[in-house]
Amino acid sequence: MDWNHLIEGVLRWLGLVILFTFHEFGHAWMAMKCGDNTAKDEGRVSLNPLVHIDPIGSVLMPLIMFLSPYSVGRFLLGWARPVPVNHYNLRNPNQDDVFITLAGPWMNLIIAIILVGLARIGLAVGSSNMTYYCYDLAEMSMMLFFFNLIPIPPLDGSRLLRVAVGMSWDTYTELARYGYIAIILVMQIQPVGDALGFLTDYSTGWMARLFGMGTS
């Protein structure tokens, strides 16, 4: 057994769980601010990972990815428990749904910026491990940012598209039942994976240059 690979895999998994937690917290917090306390009543306005993780999507699938050879796939990330939102409680349903939807990806963007800043601190103090781990998590956070903006249900991008085209919630809910199959199929298209990789690398590299670092 390669203990270094095992330790690195577990650390990356823990980092991913933290990223999932902040993403779902962003959705839940914004829903509460927009007048819907459904997530709050279920204890989801919390940074406790246990209230957000899904046994399969947050534990099993990511661990398979991180503990297997890297060639298993860069984009097999998994998922967390979706934040429940009762749109009848929102003060301005369509506008508030946009805010709630964007809160998750924007949280990933903010966390990525913070992580690159921490990577820069690691570089300044001569801690290569800190620099590597923080930059790696920043890339992972940006990957989640762009991945979630793909307009396929139930990803966040599809909810933005729903508002843009005026789709009813009943129609959207019906489409979302088959969304995961569509996501799996779309992610097999090479240009899609290449585009996500490019956007992830470019945006994280841009942040690194902003902090006075060379890209890794």
Catalogue the unreliable spans. none
Look at the helices and sheets and give the structural class.
Answer: mainly alpha
Structural domain count: 1
Secondary structure tally: strands: 0
- Principal-axis shape equals globular
Q: Please provide the ordered H/E string of secondary-structure elements.
A: HHHHHHHHH
Rounded to an integer in angstroms, the radius of gyration calculated over CA atoms is: 18 Å
- Major beta-sheet overview: none
Outline the structure in words.
The protein contains nine helices and no strands. It is mainly alpha-helical. The protein has one domain (3-210). The mean pLDDT is 91.
Q: What's a quick, concise take on this entry?
A:
The chain has helices spanning 3-33, 38-41, 55-67, 93-124, 128-147, 156-165, 169-176, 179-186, 190-210.
Describe the secondary-structure layout.
Elements: H1 3-33, H2 38-41, H3 55-67, H4 93-124, H5 128-147, H6 156-165, H7 169-176, H8 179-186, H9 190-210
Structural descriptors:
single chain; 216 residues; mainly alpha; 9 helices
